[in-house]
Amino acid sequence: MLRALTQSHYRSGYLAVSLFILVVIIRLLTVQRMGLMPQDAYYYYYSEHLALSYYDHPPMIAYLLRLFTEIFSKDEVIIKLANAVTTVFSLVAFYFLAKQFLPRHRAGSSLVLLGSTVMVTNLSLVSLPDVPLVLFWTLSLLLLHKAIHTGSGFYWALAGITVGLSFNSKYTAVFLLLGLVLFLLLSSQHRKYVFSRQMLLLLIFLLLTVSPVVMWNLQNDWISFEFQSSNRMSSIAELNLSPRFFFGNIGAQLLLLMPVLFVAMFVVFWKVGKKAIVKRSMPDSDVLFLLCFFLPIVGFFFTLSSVYLVKSNWLMPAYIAAVVLIGIYLTERHVRYHLAVSVVLHVLLLVQVVFYPVPVKSDDTWWGWDQLAAEVEILRERYPNHFIVSDDGYKTAAVLNFYMKEDVYAGNVLGKNGLQFSLTHADLSHLKNNDALFIDSNNSFTDTLKSNEIERDLLPYFDQVKELSPIVITDEEGKPVRKFLVFECRNYRYDQLVQFEDNPIEH
Predict the structure, then answer these.
(1) Same domain, 292 and 322
(2) Under DSSP, is residue 428 helix (H, G, I), strand (E, B) or coil?
């Protein structure tokens, strides 16, 4: 009987490993086949204009992409490779973190759980500030745990650096400091570190690490901090309850973690909470540590989603501690169920990437951008003295900048907030009296004809605006999939422009 149980255990382990390897293979195929996303192009645009920080995010994603494209080449696959390799390092760091809390085999199971999620696939495929954030966040948890349990100044200093690098990746890293302080206050065993030389050492190295980002914000009127804080807080303060946002966030997180992990997260929290209430005591030190780096960020963003559109990636760092905690309770059967769902979802993703059976009615797609750039190049030959501008936040302008040799301009040409383009092209006086081609993405098109409507935002800034034939991107069967309206604009009225740098937040 013992032999039968052992054989069953090994067969179960082999199945889980086989399914995980299959997920990894499918992910690699998807990385290789997936085209450029607007986010890839935008953060590559960061990397072409290296700075201490940027309008809407800190600089780590820019440095990462610059490193890989300098070593290899400027190519869509290389950008994807940068994300995938960084995410592999994040998983390695996660395994060492998990081993601080779990036996080796359970740490391996936790690695499989996290490594097979859509969240990790997303990080591997798309350039986001979350790619370096998750790496440095995971390293921070590992080093903070070692620092707290050894008292070593070396680990406290290293933790200060990695927390700082997390902040230099994305501002949500402030939850690392919140989690640390919360844990130290709640843990009677480690409360001594709240006011200690070790904490001072961490703060010194943290401040040194983030000082370039702070200095850049100081030199640029704090626009990055203000963009990420006061602008959003004004919308949140309106307190417009939106069930659509709340349930949309639940759906997004359900997809990122997948059903087994998502449900397990709340079940484990319930078990831990119930046990603490029955015993009328705090959870043990390791469980408390994980909860403090998981609950605050999850609780905050789930609450926020009731009044504000929370992007799915904002919660990603919280799931590092959550998956370790879940690994304490999940059985091999749960792992197999999770992997089976993962295989199905990743097969569907690969089919979507390769064959594109369901067109994405949004600019957040990888499909058709290279074809758009080729068509714009043809237009550029017909109108050689026209500069090119697009106004959809950053997406079309960023992608065209990636593929084309000349600068492509964004919404600040029309007196709007062009995000990083507004800083890179802060002075637009050289465009005065020039003609332009305006490219406008039309996601909800019903035909391939001209719109016969002039974009109102163009009229104050040009003497004449004329609509040209649209650019229509078709699939292999000739079916229209994407449509871009094109306008020829004569004589740019630079003097009419409300200068972005005078009040960057309002425009």
Answers:
(1) yes
(2) coil
Q: Is the pLDDT of residue 467 over 60?
A: yes
CB atoms within 10 A of CB 447: 10
In angstroms, what CA-CA distances link 310 with 170, 300, 315, 347, 482?
A: 15, 10, 9, 27, 27
pTM of model > 0.90 = yes
How confident is the model over 212-259, as pLDDT tens digits? 999 999 999 899 988 877 666 665 656 677 788 899 999 999 999 999
Domain carrying residue 480: 369-502
The total number of structural domains in the chain stands at 2
Q: Is residue 356 part of a domain?
A: no
Whole-number Å distance between alpha carbons of 6 and 19: 20
Helices (H) and strands (E) in the chain, counts: 21, 5
CB 481 within 8 A of CB 359: yes
pLDDT at 203 over 50: yes
Which of these, 470, 474, 454, lies nearest to 462 by C-alpha position?
454
Q: For residue 503, what pLDDT is reported? A: 43
Distance CA 17, CA 2 (A): 23
Q: Please calculate the CA angle 168-118-76 and round it to the nearest 5 degrees.
A: 65
6 confidence band (pLDDT: 50, 70, 90)? very low
Report how far apart, in Å, the C-alpha atoms of 355 and of each of 153, 162, 349 are. 54, 41, 10
CB 316 within 8 A of CB 256: yes
Of 317, 351, 385, at which residue does a domain stop?
Answer: 351
Dist CA 150 CA 161 (whole Å): 18
